[in-house]
Amino acid sequence: MATYVIGDLQGCLAALTRLLDHIGYQDGRDRLWFTGDLVNRGPESLATLRFVRGLTDPVVVLGNHDLHLLGVACGHRRIAPDDTLEAILQADDREELLNWLTEQPLLYYDRERRTALVHAGIPPQWDIEQALVHAGELEAALRGPEPCQVLAGLYGAKPDLWDEGLTGADRLRFIANGLTRMRYCHADGRLDMRNKGPLGSQEGGLVPWFEVAGRRTRDVRIAFGHWSSLGSHAFGQVVCLDSGCLWGGSLSALRLEDNQILSVPCAGADMARQARI
Q1: How far apart are the first and last CA of the chain?
Q2: In a 10 Å sphere around its CB, with 0-12 CB exposed, 13-18 middle and 19+ buried, how is residue 227 labelled?
Q3: Which value, in Å, is the radius of gyration of the alpha carbons in the chain?
Q4: What is the pLDDT along the chain (277 residues), one digit of tens a residue?
Q5: Beta pairing partners, 207
Q6: SS3 28
Q7: Which of 33, 102, 181, 195 could serve as 59's disulfide partner, Cβ 3.0–4.6 Å?
Q8: Residues 205/186, Cβ–Cβ less than 8 Å
Q9: Biggest alpha carbon–alpha carbon distance for the chain
Q10: Taking a C-beta distance cutoff of 8 angstroms, is the pair 12, 247 a contact?
Q11: Taking Cα atoms as reference points, which of 259, 238, 242 lies closest to residue 2?
């Protein structure tokens, strides 16, 4: 039995099938964790969602594109020209798929392995226990009586610094941004939502979230996606697994038992669009 963490799919089911063949995955014997962004902009978003839902006991965390799908379904977000969500929204099993997606966590933590799974990262001010509590707040809100109202309040770049006194939409928005959209931070841990490029391209004073001095999850292995220009790469205990499959890169899996990263090439779209993710 092996556990594999797989990077952002974004509707690239053919690449996932090749990767599973490459690693010798057997459903029911091995287990798959997914870094989120199962859907959108790739060619097979509906089939990808159905496939992952049909696996035996997968672990899936929500990414920003998954939240975008839920927001579009609620009527609070517009479909962008390069979105590939229409097939899901028109599917006969639309409600089952959307309900299943809503039930997925924003953060997963395997205590035995001391390994966390998240889409973008964990804000540097939180230790793992705080991160689980705060992720749970947003999860509960999305599964509550007014999920569409919650989704409507998640968009925007402020507040950019965590404060335990935050309430309402401001509190949930920071949690969503930290877990599903964050890349760079200021030295004091404030989130930067503008800089999205590779390391070295950021404005002065910004560092990757995992390099903020005093980050409180340094004792935890963290697997994440979201940042395709980093590729599949380990930064100490922190491992990025978004290797840009959608953009013609590769689809990668981390085998947790030996920390080996395995990849297959992807036939992708125009790399020049990468800055738009």
Answers
A1: 34
A2: buried
A3: 17
A4: 999 999 999 999 999 999 999 999 999 999 999 999 999 999 999 999 999 999 999 999 999 999 999 999 999 889 999 999 999 999 999 999 999 999 999 999 999 999 999 999 999 999 999 999 999 999 999 999 999 999 999 999 999 999 999 999 999 999 999 999 999 999 999 999 999 999 999 999 999 999 999 999 999 999 999 999 999 999 999 999 999 999 999 999 999 999 999 999 998 644 334 333 3
A5: 185
A6: coil
A7: 33
A8: yes
A9: 49
A10: no
A11: 259
Strand partners, 178: none
pTM: 0.95
Instruction: List the beta strands (DSSP E) in the chain.
Output: 3-6, 31-34, 59-60, 107-110, 115-118, 184-186, 191-192, 206-208, 221-224, 233-235, 238-240, 250-255, 260-265
Residue 132 near residue 238 (C-beta atoms within 8 A): no
Has domain 3-183+209-276 been given CATH number 1.10.10.10? no
What are phi and psi for residue 73, nearest 5 degrees? -60, -30
Q: Give the residues across from 240 on adjacent strands.
A: 224, 233
Whole-number Å distance between alpha carbons of 138 and 32:
24
Residues 31 and 58 sit within 8 Å (Cβ to Cβ): yes
* CA distances for 81 relative to 22, 65, 115, 213, 268, angstroms: 33, 14, 37, 39, 17
- The pair phi, psi for residue 69, each rounded to 5°, is -60, -45
How many helices (H) and strands (E) the chain has is answered by: 8, 13
Tokens of 151: 């989704």
44 Cβ partners below 8 Å, 6+ apart? 11, 12, 13, 14
